[in-house]
């Protein structure tokens, strides 16, 4: 496995769906065991990916993700602790599904090379969905890198809320950046400052893809603002004691004000 190898695979048209496979590599400042805990346990996945997750630790077991009251299930197809973890989602009525495979390889100095192979069948507006996956997967892996480097061993409370519908992503970006105390052009490393529920929050931009993804790291959170089609969604990970319902309400009010 070679780290940082570019993703070159393209979806192959077929009927009725479109098979795809994307490969992404990243080197992480963590041991293989730390990476395994982050990618193959529910609390670990909660701390950098999406939604609330559960993992049954065995091949043939189940994995699930819950977002906005909807739970999607998957079957674990490979379980080799410290080396390989894979699962495949249940196909929909149209045959669409997604599968994830993680390959772990230790490196000198305590670092780890991780390969993600994301495959499956896309239907409907598959070209748009494919582009979203191709751009989005590396961003989530960047969040994983931030997690294992800056919050090793800690467990986050995921906070996911929707903002209102706006005309386009450019409008979302134009409202979001000043709300975070940022000015154009935004660059990774820029300082962030804003008020949340009466408390001053300070952080740094750690990941950015204008105008669809903005990642901010604070002392106790990874804040992720994900946009598509004029809607912004938070995918935050809070590494402090927090009531999930209250945190979601607080961020929903903040986002509504920012997007007004």
UniProtKB/TrEMBL annotation:
**Classification via Pfam families:** AHSA1
Give the range the annotation lists for the signal sequence.
none
- Which part of the chain is the Activator of Hsp90 ATPase homologue 1/2-like C-terminal domain? 30-149
Question: What top-level branch of life does the organism fall under?
Answer: Bacteria
InterPro entries of this UniProt entry? ASHA1/2-like_C (IPR013538), START-like_dom_sf (IPR023393)
Tell me the segments the record calls region Disordered.
1-21
Fetch the CDD domains from UniProt: SRPBCC_CalC_Aha1-like
Q: Which family does it belong to?
A: Belongs to the AHA1 family.
Name of the protein in question: SRPBCC domain-containing protein
Provenance organism = Dactylosporangium roseum
Ranked from the top, the taxonomy reads: Bacteria, Bacillati, Actinomycetota, Actinomycetes, Micromonosporales
């Amino acid at each position: 496995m070679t780290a940082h190898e570019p993703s070159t695979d393209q979806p192959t048209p077929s009927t009725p769906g479109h098979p795809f496979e994307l490969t992404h590599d990243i080197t992480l400042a963590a041991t293989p065991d730390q990476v395994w805990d982050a990618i193959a346990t529910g609390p670990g996945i909660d701390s950098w990916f999406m939604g609330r997750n559960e993992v049954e630790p065995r091949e043939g077991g189940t994995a699930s993700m819950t977002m906005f009251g909807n739970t999607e299930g998957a079957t674990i197809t490979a379980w080799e602790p410290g080396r390989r973890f894979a699962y495949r989602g249940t196909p929909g009525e149209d045959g669409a599904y997604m599968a994830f495979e993680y390959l772990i390889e230790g490196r000198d100095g305590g670092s780890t090379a991780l390969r993600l192979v994301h495959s499956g069948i896309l239907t409907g507006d598959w070209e748009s969905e494919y582009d979203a996956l191709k751009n989005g997967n590396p961003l989530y892996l960047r969040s994983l890198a931030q997690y294992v480097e800056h919050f090793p061993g800690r467990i986050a409370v995921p906070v996911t809320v929707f903002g209102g519908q706006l005309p386009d992503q450019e409008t979302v970006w134009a409202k979001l950046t000043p709300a975070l105390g940022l000015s154009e052009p935004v660059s990774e490393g820029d300082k962030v400052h804003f008020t949340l529920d009466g408390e001053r929050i300070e952080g740094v931009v750690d990941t950015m893809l204008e105008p669809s993804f903005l990642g901010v790291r604070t002392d106790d959170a990874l804040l992720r603002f994900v946009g598509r089609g004029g809607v912004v969604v938070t995918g935050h990970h809070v590494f402090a004691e927090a009531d999930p319902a209250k945190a979601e309400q607080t961020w929903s009010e903040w986002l509504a004000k920012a997007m007004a």
